[in-house]
Amino acid sequence: MPGPDPLVPPFRPPQTCGTGATRRACQDPASRRRPPGKDLDPPVRHDVRTFGDAHPRLEAGAVALRKPEERDAAAIARCHNDPEVARWFGVAQPWTHADALRYVTVEVPAWWARGEEAVFAVVGPDDAYQGSVDLRVPGTEPAAGEVGFFVAPAARGRGYATTALTAACRWGFEALGLERIQWRAEVGNDASRRVAQKAGFTMEGLLRRALVTGGTRRDCWIGSLLREDMA
Q1: 191 with 1: CB under 8 angstroms?
Q2: Closest listed residue to residue 176, CA positions, set 36, 22, 50, 20
Q3: What distance in Å separates the CA atoms of residue 11 and residue 153, rounded to the nearest whole number?
Q4: Residue 206 phi, psi (nearest 5)
Q5: Are the C-beta atoms of 34 and 93 separated by less than 8 Å?
Q6: Which of 92, 108, 120, 215 would bridge 65 by S-S if both were Cys, CB 3.0 to 4.6 A apart?
Q7: How far is CA 98 from CA 11, 27, 95, in A?
């Protein structure tokens, strides 16, 4: 998406990062969807599938996580057409500006409203789009989530990935009351694995044919981050 930080080359010679909700959206050919201190407060005991009315802005050092906006559409489209993003996330090609606009104006708000998936744009000091990180919360297990992330080619090597992933996970634990966040990546996506490890994820092993990319089942690595790991 190897430099000091693989997220920022989440996609260099396989410097791509993440899976989860990001991968799920990228793999929908019909709509060609796209492919955020101190101890934590006690777990929040509300409906974790309710994300809230306002999409928050999360400040995280050199980057910030915010709601994707229409002005990001061109950058989002370029990022999804990057060969490494397309490779690891199974993004339908070409991914157009119209696809990006639909993603920003229709899909992201719908996922948020349903409490299904929180998508954040990763932005630099100038507030320009540099990548995405998302957190999906399945209804079958509302205390657990799954992350997906990547950054644009020009933003790689700056440590954005690890910082953004850490911020998104902390928000999931604090605001949503999650207890476990899962990461999965296709075997061979070393950049994503390095980012996850830097963010504190524990590698748990390999799942055979457990990840579907481009309509094909593939082996994947799996890791997890628990609430207490971030305290």
Answers
A1: yes
A2: 50
A3: 7
A4: -120, 135
A5: no
A6: 120
A7: 24, 17, 8
Q: Which residues contact 142 (CB under 8 A, 6 or more apart)?
A: 47, 48, 49
Distance between CA atoms of 6 and 194, rounded to whole angstroms? 6
Could you report the per-residue pLDDT of 75-115, keeping only the tens digit for each? 999 999 999 999 999 999 999 999 999 999 999 999 999 99
The answer to whether the pTM exceeds 0.70 is yes
Q: How many residues does the chain have?
A: 231
